[in-house]
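Sample entry copied in:
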Amino acid sequence: MEETISLQELFATLKKRLALIIALTVLAVLIAGVVSYNFLTPIYQTNTQILVNQEKTDASQLLNQNIQTDLQLINTYSVIIKSPAILDQVSEQLDLGLSVEALTNKITVTNAENSQVVNVSVQDPDPAIAVDIANTTAAVFQEEIQELMKVDNVSILSPAVVKENPSPVAPNPMLNMAIAAVVGLMLGVGIAFILEYLDTSLKNEQDIEDVLGIPLLGVISPIKEDTASQTDSDRKAG
């Protein structure tokens, strides 16, 4: 016979194992908080912006065709910024002992849709080093693009600066704790149902009927010890 579980039984299982579920959820949140605040290295981010023009001209001379040409160049420039031709010089100038691969992992190059502005973001455990990498990368790119592309169309709009009280972008303790709470809750519910499934003991009349498949005719109530002693005394007295 196929066994089915009613919604009432599901809620009964959750209620029965509620303490376990809560304990695992709280434990997961505490572990995530401790790890986030004490063991994960804070990562800081800084940004510098680069403007791409076809050539240095007056604003009145900029044509729509020139702007479209600039937008086509931005994808190429985004690759060049993170290329060894640029990052080798950045690593040499900063003398941080970082390889090109390490610098590449720290740098993200993006641009808004239909925008001639390229945003260079750098992440590092040291906010001052992040600023140095961003500004040096922009400066080297501005200089080297003249040799690589034979054009002079890059201007630095806003150099990166060290903020007075920088806030790390990672880790995010609250987000980590929220995720841990969900994971702990799911784990607690899963363990609760597993324990309930493995528990084959008979606890009430309904369990007996379900296992034997026959109706229950009667129940013998438990006799308290005091009552049993009194009954024996009455029999002896009689």
User: Anything to note?
Assistant: The CA atoms of residues 118 and 234 lie 100 Å apart. The first helix runs from residue 7 to 16. The first strand starts at residue 44 and ends at 52. Residues 56-62 have pLDDT under 50 and may be disordered.
